[in-house]
Amino acid sequence: MRYHTAVLHAGSNELEKHGATLPPIYQSSAFAQQSAESLAGIFENKAPGYCYTRVANPTVSAFENRITKLEGGMASVACASGMAALTTAFLNILQAGDEIITSASLYGGTIDLFRDLESFGIRTVFVENNDWDTIEGAINENTKLIFAETIGNPGLDVTDIKKLSELAHAHGLPLIVDNTTATSYLIRPLEWGADIVVNSSSKYINGNSSAISGILTDRGRFKWSKEKYPMLTDYVKFGPMAYICRMRATIFRNFGACLSPQNAYLNLLGVETLGLRMERQCENAYKLASWIEDNYPEIKVNYPGLESSPWNLIAKEQFTKGYGAIFTMRVGSKERAFALINALKLALKVSNIGDTKTLVIHPESTISLHSTPKQKEEAGVYEDLIRVSVGIEDLQDLMEDFQQAIEHIENTKGEE
Ligand SMILES: *Cc1c(COP(=O)(O)O)cnc(C)c1O
Description:
The chain is α/β, with parallel strands linked by helices. Helix content is 38%, strand content 13%. It has 16 helices and twelve strands. It has helices at residues 3-9, 36-43, 58-71, 82-91, 108-118, 132-138, 161-170, 183-186, 242-249, 251-255, 261-271, 274-295, 312-318, 334-343, 373-378, 395-411; strands spanning 75-79, 99-103, 123-127, 143-149, 175-178, 196-199, 214-218, 300-302, 326-330, 348-349, 359-361, 385-389. The strands form two sheets. It has a seven-stranded mixed sheet, sandwiched between helices. Strands 8-9-12-11-10 form a five-stranded mixed sheet. Helix 3 runs parallel beside helix 11 (261-271), helix 12 (274-295) runs parallel beside helix 16 (395-411) and helix 14 (334-343) crosses helix 16 (395-411). It is globular, with a radius of gyration of 22 Å. The termini are far apart. It binds pyridoxal-5'-phosphate. Pyridoxal-5'-phosphate binds at residues 81-83, 107, 109-110, 149, 153, 178, 180-181, 200, 202-203, 212, 214, 353.
């Protein structure tokens, strides 16, 4: 199936018994079985079926199946949030003493998570994205995984997934990629060599900012060794399902960060238009970013689709349908950044991305507030930086809004 068809139909292999065209919301905490034996069978993983929504739920499964197909994976686990999905993806294979190597250009919440993991004895080494010598030099016997975002948020650097996965695999390490900002519309990281892909489905997948959720998808190809990943000892016998089986049987159910059926339903509604929205949003972002760059040379625009971006070549190689719907602008000072944000009438001042509506934020004082000055610098977060998540509005209205806001700060220059 091609993309716009797949978002509607992929992974829905059984017709709902009453013929409903939308997946029913199984708003039930528990599921009754015919006998004590059948309930025992489900608990022993010997029979299919549902017992308790923290473990699995039919509406949540429908969402997982759709994303598995869109990302080209083997199986998915949906969680209460993007952060829960990342935590579950990492902790499924890590223990005290282990190390993570990650691109430093990351979503602020993920940087915070890595700091939280330190108190459990898990250390993270931050490296510059696509800096192969440094990445290779950081690998040691304790390294257990490599992590990066397809398009760093808000640095907007583009990871060369093929090269990074080759490097990871040469050292027997899995590559985990956060694909939130690019989405499966632009790229399927699993097809470029990544082993596990994570999405904050609160963003583009949901699309309307109506539910927080996250999902991870395993490609089922990484060869886990018992020696290196002792947590998987009892699960390697499941072959390609080892990682997901261990997760479902242990930390996913025991940490308890499951997705609610209602939110799975909202995501299933949202995902149907993911392709259409991304098409429009990428086009709006490209045109708005180019227009600002061309008309206001004092503003430094960063967008992977622009030739001025150091990541334009990798973006062109990996993405065929667009360059994402986020761009950033450096406007000279924090005061000017605040003034521009305040002057915008249409763009909402929101700490979010991937909505149908255009959103703006000053990352340095918000999402990266808890990062150290060094972390901010490495993540491409500057005092004068504004992040724009472009929506599906009419481009002309967006251009007029940005024009009046930019002219407002130009005219008040020096007046303070
Ligand atoms: C928002 C976001 C997350 C966290 O997702 P939540 O659903 O807010 O928990 C992780 N990674 C990236 C790139 C994000 O943009």
